[in-house]
Design goal:
6-stranded parallel β-sheet; single chain; TIM Barrel; 12 helices; 3-stranded parallel β-sheet; alpha/beta; binds zinc ion
């Protein structure tokens, strides 16, 4: 029996693992694999290529990660559908395949060139995290105090992403960079894997004003399950995740809430969710405490499906 949920997860770091020789998406002992994903009614995963600051050449590292991603997609094409537009999104959902969308985490991948952004789009990238925790010539990171915000080049990047139909991801951006993006972007934005600062005071989380701006502009927030972003306690469980969801709901966020687990990018997991195979426990708990089916559906995947339908251009070729 499958878990009765379709899930959209807006962030994982599994591509970094694909980069290792012998890595397998189908079966592995890490957080995320196809065996787990196929236990659900449906599964759409954003696969981030995270560009390590220590890489010798950012562009060639980025391309190696894309190559590793495509190797795993090809190998598993019997049950995986690449998502580049809303047609392929709905094909994945209708044909009960795992949907895989390419994203990039840290715009250092661009090496300062808009041309690379355009080529990444052609290679299938549909969302880009402007920065990681530090400054990168595009945007100020969440752990930086430089006051740089979004750079002039960063503004060009955001405008070009708007034109291309690539989703701007502000998880990891500093507050100043965040507000500069809100001012610059003509399209709704996404915080793919960030929580509420009011519930857990961590610079990676969003304050209420930031959350309200996403609600106002029709963006998305993917709830991160990393205990450090959930609670001050040593450990976390589904109740801690639900506290963040409750808070965002209290601000009127029922249409902007989704999931962005951060699987394979986090050093620890909640006690009761050790991998994708256990994510259903979060939604079971929501059901148990009285969440309506329609609200659970919105959070598991409905809001993200609507957002992607709105944001992704349909390809005619
Ligand atoms: Zn991240």
């Amino acid at each position: 029996m499958k878990h009765p949920y379709t899930i959209v997860d807006a962030h994982c770091d599994t591509v970094g693992y694909f980069w290792n020789p012998g890595a397998e998406l189908r079966t592995n002992d890490r957080h995320l694999n196809l065996d787990y994903m196929k236990q659900y009614k449906g599964y759409i995963q954003f696969f981030a290529s995270y560009i390590d600051a220590n890489a010798e050449n950012y562009l060639s590292r980025t391309l190696e990660l894309f190559d590793a991603f495509y190797r795993e997609i090809e190998k598993n094409k019997d049950c995986v559908q690449l998502i580049t537009d809303s047609k392929t999104l709905h094909r994945a959902l209708d044909e009960n395949k795992v949907g895989a969308m390419m994203t990039v985490e840290d715009a250092r991948a661009l090496c300062g060139q808009l041309a690379n952004l355009r080529i990444f789009y052609k290679l299938g990238v549909r969302a880009l995290g402007l920065t990681w925790n530090h400054d990168n010539g595009v945007a100020e990171g969440a752990l930086s105090n430089s006051g740089v915000g979004l750079t002039d080049f960063g503004r060009e990047v955001v405008c070009e992403m708007n034109r291309l139909g690539m989703i701007v991801d502000v998880s990891h951006a500093s507050k100043k960079a965040y507000w500069d993006v809100i001012e610059t972007s003509t399209e709704p934005i996404m915080a793919s894997h960030s929580n509420s600062e009011a519930i857990c005071a961590h610079p990676r989380n969003l304050d209420d004003e930031q959350i309200r701006a996403i609600i106002k502009t029709g963006g998305m927030i993917g709830i991160n399950i990393f205990p450090t972003f959930l609670t001050d306690k040593e450990t976390a469980n589904v109740d801690d995740i639900i506290r963040h969801i409750e808070h965002i709901l209290s601000l009127g966020g029922e249409n902007v809430l989704g999931i962005g687990t951060d699987f394979d990018g986090i050093g620890s997991t909640p006690d009761d969710i050790n991998n994708v195979g256990e994510l259903y426990k979060l939604f079971d708990k929501m059901k148990k405490i009285g969440y309506s089916d329609s609200l659970i559906t919105a959070i598991t995947h409905g809001n993200f499906v609507n957002f992607l339908d709105k944001m992704l251009k349909n390809e005619n070729n």
